[in-house]
Amino acid sequence: MDKAERNYNIIKEFALEKLYLSLFGVTETKQLYNDMSDELRDASNELIYAISVAFKLSDAVIDSLVDHPTRLYMHHYQAVNRYLDSSALLIGKIIEELGGKYIAVPASLFLSKEEKHRSHLSHRTAAYFAGLGWIGRNNLLVTPEFGSRVRLVTILTDLELKTDTPMEFGCGDCYECIKACPAGALTENGYDFEKCFKLLSYFVGKYNVGHHICGLCVKACRGKR
């Protein structure tokens, strides 16, 4: 076993068995360069690997959604994001113990109101290149195990790691997310961000959820269980 594979196995075992994360993969940061903010690109120019991890959302919470996001879902969404951020820091400490450096990219952080949903890095893109799943018709990461019922975080590092292979598109003849979208933002021709964001903004005020979240296309995408 070479050093890259050994490091990979140590971190993966820690992430899945000690932190109870659900999925783990690694890609090279050069795949993500165009998706990075200028700030992150400047800070991470020597960090050539990206670790992507996922935490599975609660089926009970997701299945409780009917036609709009709820405060119960909002709290779960926030709690999982906080846990992912904490987990990323703990993975970073393992990286340091193995002799590497790291940057834990926040699980959910928008850079400005003007750049709608623009963050330091697309965790979805990182997860795709790290082999966790594919980009589905819902414009989200779809995993074979859990569908889109996951939240993601990314850790950049210079620690030598083996990398994973992206998956092919796997939605097949499933169109449940398109049927479920209350904004009509999902079609066979692609995703309409403005339609989605307009409805999410309405949900924020109507249901006092505090975040631009919905969850209905997530509910519709269960994976191959």
Report on this structure.
- By secondary structure, the protein is α+β, with helices and mostly antiparallel strands.
- The protein is built from 8 helices and 8 strands, in the order αβαβααβαβββαββαα.
- It has helices at 3-18, 38-43, 59-63, 71-97, 123-129, 176-180, 193-207, 216-220, and strands spanning 23-28, 49-56, 102-105, 134-135, 141-142, 150-157, 186-187, 190-191.
- The chain has a 4-stranded antiparallel β-sheet with strand order 1-2-6-3, sandwiched between helices. Strands 4-5 form a two-stranded antiparallel ribbon.
- β7 (186-187) and β8 form a beta hairpin.
- The longest helix has 27 residues, at 71-97.
- The mean pLDDT is 91.
List the helices and strands and how they pair.
Elements: H1 3-18, E1 23-28, H2 38-43, E2 49-56, H3 59-63, H4 71-97, E3 102-105, H5 123-129, E4 134-135, E5 141-142, E6 150-157, H6 176-180, E7 186-187, E8 190-191, H7 193-207, H8 216-220
Antiparallel strand pairs: 1-2, 2-6, 3-6, 4-5, 7-8
The sequence of SSEs as H and E is HEHEHHEHEEEHEEHH
Give Rg in angstroms. Answer: 17 Å
The percent of residues in helical segments reads 25-40%
Which percent range describes the beta-strand content? 15-25%
Distance between the termini: 33 Å
